[in-house]
Design a protein that fits this description.
Elements lengths: L5 H11 L5 E4 L7 H10 L3 E6 L10 H4 L5 E6 L4 H12 L9 E6 L5 H5 L5 E9 L10 E10 L5 E9 L2 E8 L2
Parallel strand pairs: 1-2, 2-3, 3-4
Antiparallel strand pairs: 4-8, 5-6, 6-7, 7-8
Length: 177
């Protein structure tokens, strides 16, 4: 659908999103920040976005982080460690009230983990854990070990993991319910 007209892509999303478990986008057919935010708030399950440039589209990262999706995967060339730090700071300050349970960002640059975690009160852990989604998403539970826990003032806990790979750095953020 990367080459289809925006009007067709929007109509397809409008029809298919409510009845599918996962929505995968290779382009963003929306022309304004407001239109994108409305879509992000309407998606309730699993959304993956693989595109070349948010910046070309004049969208702010916040538009993606107001998502009502339980799981959000972003793979985009302009994502950076700064995007991750901004998201984490906002989450800790309780600025994102979404039901987001798992965020994955894949960025092209390597990440200085200690610098990124500075000031977040992150506590390292090494034991194995299994993350389960609160709703059925047709995704198996994810078992992992290693990472860092952070906690909001209201007590809500999240775990941050990093993985270096051939596509860049994978950042995973899990919110424990």
């Amino acid at each position: 659908m990367a080459n289809c007209p925006n009007s067709f892509a929007k109509k397809a999303l409008e029809i298919l999103t409510p009845v599918t478990t996962e929505t995968v986008m290779f382009k963003i057919p929306f022309e304004s920040q407001e239109e994108l935010e409305i879509f992000m708030k309407s998606n309730k399950k699993y959304l993956s976005i693989f595109i070349e440039g948010f910046s070309e589209l004049k969208f702010k990262m916040d538009a993606f982080l107001v998502s009502n999706s339980l799981r959000l995967l972003l793979r985009e060339k302009s994502l950076s460690a700064r995007s991750i730090k901004e998201f984490l700071s906002n989450w800790l300050q309780n600025e994102h009230h979404s039901p987001l349970e798992h965020l994955t960002m894949i960025i092209d640059e390597s990440v200085d983990r200690l610098e990124l975690l500075e000031g977040l009160g992150a506590a390292p852990f090494s034991e194995e854990r299994t993350f389960h989604y609160s709703k059925e998403l047709e995704i198996l539970p994810n078992t992992f070990s290693g990472g860092y826990d952070i906690r909001r003032i209201n007590g809500k806990k999240a775990t941050i993991t990093f993985e270096d790979g051939y596509q860049g750095t994978r950042f995973d953020f899990y919110v424990w319910l």
